[in-house]
Specification:
Distance between the termini: 83 Å
CATH superfamily: Aldolase class I
CATH topology: TIM Barrel
Number of strands: 13
Radius of gyration: 24 Å
Structural class: alpha/beta
CATH class: Alpha Beta
CATH architecture: Alpha-Beta Barrel
Number of domains: 1
Helix content: 25-40%
Shape: globular
Largest sheet: 8 strands, parallel
Amino acid sequence: MRARNIGASAAAALALVAARDLVQKKHALLRNFPVVGHARYLLERIGPELRQYVVTSNDEERPFSRDQRSWIYASAKEENNYFGFGTDNDVEHVQGHAYVKQRTFAGRLPDLRDAQAPLPSAKVLGGPRGRAKAFRPASVVNISAMSFGSLSGAAVTALNKGAALAGTMHNTGEGGLSPYHLNGGELVLQIGTSYFGCRNEDGTFNLDKLKSVVASGPVKAIEIKLSQGAKPGLGGMLPGVKVTDEIAGIRGIPAGKDCASPSRHTAFHDVDSMLDFVELLATETGLPVGIKSAIGEMGFWEELATLMERGDRGVDFVTIDGGEGGTGAAPLIFADSVSLPFRMGFSRVYSVFAERGLTDDITFIGSGKLGLPENAVVAFALGVDMVNVGREAMLSIGCIQAQKCHTDACPTGIATQDPWLTRGIDAPSKAIRAAMYLRTLRRELLRVSGAVGVAHPSLITPTDIDILNGDYEARTLASVYDYKDGWGSLGPKLADEIAELLTA
């Protein structure tokens, strides 16, 4: 009798669903195929999960393949991150694949047995321009700009604690400095077009508020965000559902309303006035000041390098974000087709400064899927001095690449403000995982550097890497990106200094 009642209830429920489907006019599929048509929407909803775990091969999925995610997860958990039985790549036919050329002999190298081996920057940030608070970053791997608001407070806490444990810096993102950023990790304060945390009521920049924010935490440098890879020239968008009272207070905006950042700055309007702004911030705070940008037209960079040639004004660092970089939300056309990929964009910018002999005076930072050893090694060979990791750091604290960042429904509680979902993050334990991932990536960079026969990844040159160019042919990285002799390499003084520092 009970089974009969259950069956009758189920049949009645299906009949109601079928009746609703037949009369509704929103979905043609359901109108034509009542009840069973819902299977299509279910499969569409769980499509990313099906592709991640069932359909795709180990190296096929984007933005991060199963092999890449597995390496990050294992590294973060201190598990075996080796792979057995050889590569499953088609090594002779994968167009554009990079191959590092090891050396048989080498000079003095760091002790690779130390799991926490230091790997500082080869350059002193702010040193060439004589900034009052110039310093040598302790780690060439740091956490990229991801704002509180885009990420949950628990996620930011975990990342900042992880940065402290690993001895790396943590970029605040343009959303301002929140209490969650004050868990021991040193900070790079990012200033975006909305000047969150240092703005007047009308959205314009306020220097006094900036100085107050800088004084409130361990801020080591200031980064002026011009654009980012996933949505260059667009500005940002934080959906109103994520703008809680707390976020509104930190940013200085109304709660519960969509927060759209302008596409361009109001504190300056061209390269000349931008350099005036850079020097103002550096003078008033003593901190190194740099810019972050995705790469499009090159006129901006030509003018910047020309003005910096004079020596009276200049940026201390340049962060180049590739078009393959991540974001919480962006229109598809911007994520897919606006701004150059990292290698192409960075090489063009580096070449502009190299032509003028300025590369030793600027710290170059790369971002955009550089939290994987192979990508990071190529970046260093092209002339990068440090790399920022964003989505890879998120993966280390539990992100499953559900790609729901723009919905406020992130199932792991990382890219959401939903209290029920964020409660899933245990910040202390996730911080340890973030730190282990960051340390492991540094150690991998040291290992590859040792294989090439040099003490530091910044000493890897563009001729140490070949790029596969069609079947059975390869060109050096220098040849692919038209680098001249010496480009991508440190000057002799810097090279000797960092080698001595690591092997003393």
